[in-house]
Amino acid sequence: MTAGSAATGEKIPVLDVRNLEAVYRTDEGVVYAVNGISFTIAERETIGLVGETGAGKTTTALSILRLLPERTGHVLGGEILYKGQDLLKKDIDEMRMIRGACISMIFQDPMTALNPTLSVGDQILESLEIHNTDGHPPEALETRVDELLRLVGISPGRKGEYPHQFSGGMKQRIVIAIALACEPMLLIADEPTTALDVTIQAQVLVLMEELKTKLGTSMIMITHDLGVVAKTCDKVSVMYAGEIVEYGTAKDIFEGTRHHPYTVGLFKAIPSLNESTRRLQPIDGLMPDPSDLPQGCKFHPRCPKCLEECRDGHPFLYDEGGHRILCNLFRGEGL
Q1: 272: buried, middle or exposed (CB in 10 Å: 19+, 13-18, 0-12)?
Q2: Which residues contact 96 (CB under 8 A, 6 or more apart)?
Q3: Do 86 and 133 share a domain, yes or no?
Q4: In Å, how far are 280, 298, 317 from 259, measured between CA atoms?
Q5: Angle, to 10 degrees, between the axis of helix 168-180 and the axis of helix 138-151?
Q6: How many of the other CB atoms lie within 10 Å of CB of 251?
Q7: Which helix (H) or strand (E) holds 212?
Q8: CATH number of the domain bearing residue 97
Q9: pLDDT digits 0-9 by tens, 255-278
Q10: Quick check: pTM over 0.85?
């Protein structure tokens, strides 16, 4: 599903993912994790990748950074254009220089993302040393470590401490500091608030928004939480079984009148303070086995509005002003 590309005369997007396909080859068979997705991210823009566990969100992020497991993970096709250059054509050394300096990632669990044997200051410093192409002296790098800790609200006096001496929220702040050390153009945040309590979640989201504004960073926010998306994202891609089933601006998704049945299901599963008597409505069934995906629309076995044509063949792509929905319910509408 194509999310569009820059028109003639427009700036080249920071990231342009085109028809990306990624699989895992295991002894039990092939896992079809990402199945032909496309989206673009402009400067200072945040896009949300939303969906249940197993939708392919994290695999998409790992594919962008070329961090899929070496023996099992494979990108079968597509392009991942960072400022016009295809990352899939870069060699290992080129990718090492891009990771951290140009594209950084906040990994899902701050409890395991940090090395327990190194002080937090050394872990931030490591990224700065790897990308110190301008030959800054050690004193300047140490000063930068202090700046980054202050930026995320941690006293530089604690840089000699180890991860186990910090709370979960502070560990997440340190992970963010490492990701932002070299002021990347693109930040990938994979469920950055999942392991945190509600109060710390709010603080981390505010911090990320402030840093995005200050540094001019573009962002991919990977989450299953539509509340987080509403607060942080300019555009939204709803993923299901490795496909983008709905794509649009945050206004399209949260205020529009047409939605993919899966998106409707996600909204019905969110508690609302305005409708305290409404019972939550979980989506029936489970995400399909990615090694044995159903024919036709991948959502049709769980869809309350399934049509006969949904069971065979690729679903219709509805498109109205960039709001795209992959669903036969809208056949004959849009472009």
Answers
A1: exposed
A2: 130
A3: no
A4: 19, 16, 12
A5: 130
A6: 12
A7: helix 198-215
A8: 3.40.50.300
A9: 999 999 999 999 987 766 565 556
A10: yes
